[in-house]
Amino acid sequence: MSTLVERLSELKIIPVIAIKRAEDAVALGRALIEGGMPSAEITFRTPAAAQAIRNLRAEFPDMVIGAGTVLTTAQVDEAIEAGVDFVVSPGFNPTTVRYCQQRGMPIVPGVNNPSLVEQAMEMGLNTLKFFPAEPSGGVAMLKALSAVYPVKFMPTGGVSPQNVKQYLGLGSVFACGGTWMVPGDLIDAGEWDTIRELAREAMAAL
Fold first, then answer.
1. Which of 12, 41, 78, 134 is catalytic?
2. What's the first-to-final CA gap in the chain, in angstroms?
């Protein structure tokens, strides 16, 4: 996990993607890479997720690829078989966490309060998703949690060009998840040039 966290820390922003057509994955991945974001968290919110991950992994073997919105052990299996580097869940489900640990797959589960952080630490985790970041108190809440717990966070949910630098400015934040550079309507329309520029602008702003 430490090596993964180092890689994610270097990337700083992880695009969180809901993709409807797996055949769009390669063009999308190329746009992100050319825009300076060689990473993707493909969410299991659509039936195309697993195949999209396979397509990305085949075309871009060095890309950092995560599976997001993983809710079940069956989805963990799908993600691993598709070739992901890590799994992300929106909440803290001990069954999903334990299963990932058994399979040797890094997982970044979602938390947004002290009790969940402590449950995660009890299971040996020190790298967590803070979700939904803005509705859960944003930077102020993260500062409060970080003052008490020796863990690292990846805020996701409401992270935007307006606040991403504030999140990344916290010592406890190793990366942020964001959707603003990969909006669903642009993916559906195949607007790869626009996505490339949005990615480039996001990285340049840092």
1. 41
2. 25
